Amino acid sequence: MDKATTFQISRRGNPERWNVLPILKTTPQLEVDTGFAAGTLTFDLIEVQDWFTPQNGDEVRFSWNGVKVFFGHIFKVSYSGDEVFGVTAYDNMRYLKNQDSIIWPAGTASQRFETMCKATGIPYRVVTRSSYKLPAKVADGETYFDMIKADIDDTATATGKRYFIRDNDGTVEFLAMPSSKSNIIVGDKSLLTDWKYDASIDDAANVVKVVKKSKKDKGKTTATASESSSGDDPANTMLTTKSASGSTVSKWGMLQVVEKVNDDKMNAAAMQQKAKDILREKNKEERTLKLTALGTTDLRAGDSCYIKVQSLTDIGIGPRQVNITKLTHKFDPKNWTMDLEVSI
Predict the structure, then answer these.
(1) Tell me, what's the pLDDT at 234?
(2) Dihedral angle at the C-alpha atoms of 13, 26, 288, 95, nearest 10 degrees?
(3) Domain boundaries, the chain
(4) Which CATH number fits domain 95-176: 3.55.50.10, 3.40.718.10, 3.30.70.920, 3.90.1300.10?
(5) Are 99 and 141 in contact, with CB atoms under 8 Å apart?
(6) Nearest to residue 36, comparing CAs of 158, 122, 204, 163?
(7) Domain 4-90 adopts which CATH fold?
(8) What residue spans carry the Polar residues bias annotation (predicted)?
(9) Radius of gyration of the chain (CA)
């Protein structure tokens, strides 16, 4: 029978641990997302007088069927009239919500990830190093999550390689997507209980315009010239543009985005290449498949698995390997299930 084998809470830095399995009231739920969000464990505990009260900052350790599935800290405790504590705990990625102002020298996304983790004091590991060198930039008052997301997105745009971060039992890791390729099949006759498929072009673009703004005469100012809504003097402003368009314009209509560049040294060829890189990322449908399946700890967010669903094959989505972008476990001993979101 599936069951929780460890459920302990302790004060930060205190070796004494309380076993809260006997007072667990509801099914614990664990949500892990590769989209730059901390892993979240939620659960309810029955209040026991003169014994134990969960507090913010407490450490939480949770194992299922002998497998460590969560280590983190409590960030929210509620207490209701039926004398039940509602608890929300996050893994160590939560500390990447800290804000900072940094002048980044040119470097790779994995190098910047290391700097961010050192700044927050969380354990980290670079499993797969990125090689693409990002240009220097200024991040002012941004969260570390926003910083690393921008760096990973820029790396993907330039190289086509996708990286992500996740917590592994308290150590935050930087990895390539997928982190591992599983032979597990989620399908009609294997684990699957329900599914939903979506295809959207809401965030797609098939025309990309890269724009560089400069002054016609850097030494000239006019006190009487009218200004545009952006605060620029129209008479003394020059826009240099390069664009790229895709074949889907005839099918979807024109879907244009503008990318502004602040690098005065970027030449026309570099601007054209940037437009092509962005187009490659955006000129496609966003296809998402949500699956409900029987639970297993052999699959993790960031891994890949095989899907094999006859109804999907009927509409052109045959058996294939897909990346798991989000995974939610509902740890019910009588009916352990998991919800997966995968990219097609």
Answers:
(1) 81
(2) -20
(3) 4-90, 95-176, 181-201+285-343, 207-221+231-282
(4) 3.55.50.10
(5) yes
(6) 163
(7) Phage tail proteins - horseshoe like beta roll fold (2.30.300)
(8) 226-241
(9) 25
User: What pLDDT, in 10s, does the model give residues 185-195?
Assistant: 999 989 999 99
Write out pLDDT tens, residues 103-130. Answer: 999 999 999 999 999 999 999 999 999 9
How is domain 181-201+285-343 classified at the architecture level of CATH? Beta Barrel (2.40)
C-alpha dihedral over 107, 108, 112, 113, to 10 degrees? -170
Per-chain mean pLDDT for the chain: 92
pLDDT of residue 226: 45
Query: What percentage of the chain carries pLDDT values higher than 70?
Result: 95
- Pairing assessment for the beta strands 171-176 and 192-200 based on DSSP bridges: unpaired
Give CA–CA dist 8/11, Å, rounded.
Answer: 10
CB 300 within 8 A of CB 179: yes
Measured CA to CA, the distance from residue 328 to residue 35 in angstroms comes to: 13
Distance from C-alpha of 329 to C-alpha of 317, rounded to nearest angstrom? 26
Tell me how far apart the terminal alpha carbons of the chain are, to the nearest angstrom: 33
- What whole-number distance in Å separates Cα of residue 338 and Cα of residue 331? 8
Neighbours of 93 (CB within 10 A): 25
Sign of CA dihedral 105, 111, 115, 120: positive
